[in-house]
Amino acid sequence: MSRRFAAVDLGASSGRVMLADLSDGLSLTEAHRFPNGPVRVAGRLYWDILGLYREILAGLRAAGPVSSIGVDSWAVDYGLLDESGALLGNPVHYRDDRTRGVAERVAGAVGAERLYDVSGLQVLPFNTIYQLLADRLDGAATMLLVPDLIGYWLTGEAGAEVTNASTTGLLDVRTRSWATSLIEELGLPAGIFPPLRQPGEALGGLRRDVAAEIGWSAPVRAVGSHDTASAVAAVPAAGPAFAYISCGTWSLAGVELPGPVLTPESRAANFTNEAGIDGTVRYLRNVMGLWLLQECLRAWPGSDLGELLAAAAGEKPFAAVVNPDEPVFLPPGDMPARIADECRRTGQLPPSSPAAYVRCVLESLALGHRLAVRQAMELSGREAEVIHLVGGGSRNEVLCQFTADACGLPVVAGPAEATALGNVLVQARAAGLVAGLEEMRSLVAYSQPLRRYEPSGAAGAWDEAAARVF
Ligand code: ADP
Ligand code: LRH
């Protein structure tokens, strides 16, 4: 058996097919990367799901034969299949506005306390539960979350991997089974929710036509198919005293726990209890993340990220900061204009150059990280001595240093491709090559380049900035 594994990892800003080799330690190479993003058609925001599928096949062809394949992606979004297994309509992007007001309506009908007690999930307007209630479900026989949909197209086998199912709002946080009574109470058709599968479980071999197209065949395995579950599985932590920030399009900031926290305080702070690998709980909150920066760059055609980050480091500290989680920042659109409005609304002068905007975004994001990490520790009682910052944001040296300074904790940055690593390590474990979560993490720690940032001691200035924003 070869010791090569392929990770199909779909992020909101790019997808990639990564190739891991565990013959001697753990090496990871990129077989194929392709852009991803929302597509607006007739006023609705979609993913280009077929384009993504085509790129996945191109990536697998480029990767060459492997022992197995795992698929992960962003959470909450789905495709609906009819009785024959055909896709009913194009999957809608979670930033689409069709769910406006739905969360409030559901809370009014069912009770916010009850929802939290059942699912343990933070309220985000785009949780699957709200999307399903905003959609037309007639003719739908099966609901497949995005990685499960890709897995279905690759193998013909339908199912719902549990870490991602935990982001729907319809999974029981205690039993990790579908919350059937809530589903029925909401009037959703219980039959569309497929059987749950666990990370490591085999889906089946590639369909013959798929194997013919990519030129080889291999089984597909369920992994932590929620990208954040895979990222947290690959955090290079040595013990339990760590916090993490999975920092890409979103920053997912929190701690790992053995069980959920379902207290009124936790609900009030909008903390989530998402399912992690091996029964762990990802206790975290979404922070708006590098979306803020991505959307600024889109507004400045021809700008260069590296140059802007270098210039931002030289800008005046704390000239303007915003709460990164203001709902106004969620949809696509002119981000600099929205940041400027938010500055004016809070009595601050808007930034006056792209570099000053970037400085504002990075400081604001570090403040969001600080609040989420501190609240995660307070609400769970879990102490952290270090913050592991993984994902593409770990390449952003300014953000890593700001995060260490704002939080007053050392930040260990990397790996940037933690999600792909978590994906392949669950496959390698299923193949008997790795023992458990601890060994997976130490393999990452020893094999991947990491960088440590110490807090610089400017705590007072960050306290003052935080008081301005929250
Ligand atoms: P996602 O999986 O959500 O698409 P990623 O984890 O791939 O996100 O992270 C993408 C982000 O990482 C980019 O928006 C960018 O801000 C940041 N990033 C990527 N490469 C670099 C780099 N070389 N320097 C600084 N930031 C980077
Ligand atoms: C990050 C992520 C996050 C979800 C969001 C929809 O990619 O999966 O964990 O909240 O996308």
From TrEMBL:
Domain Carbohydrate kinase FGGY N-terminal positions: 65-232
Domain Carbohydrate kinase FGGY C-terminal: 243-431
Pfam families (UniProt xref): FGGY_C (PF02782), FGGY_N (PF00370)
Alphabetic keyword roster: ATP-binding, Disulfide bond, Kinase, Nucleotide-binding, Rhamnose metabolism, Transferase
Family of this protein: Belongs to the FGGY kinase family.
Protein's UniProt name: Rhamnulokinase family protein
Organism: Nonomuraea maheshkhaliensis
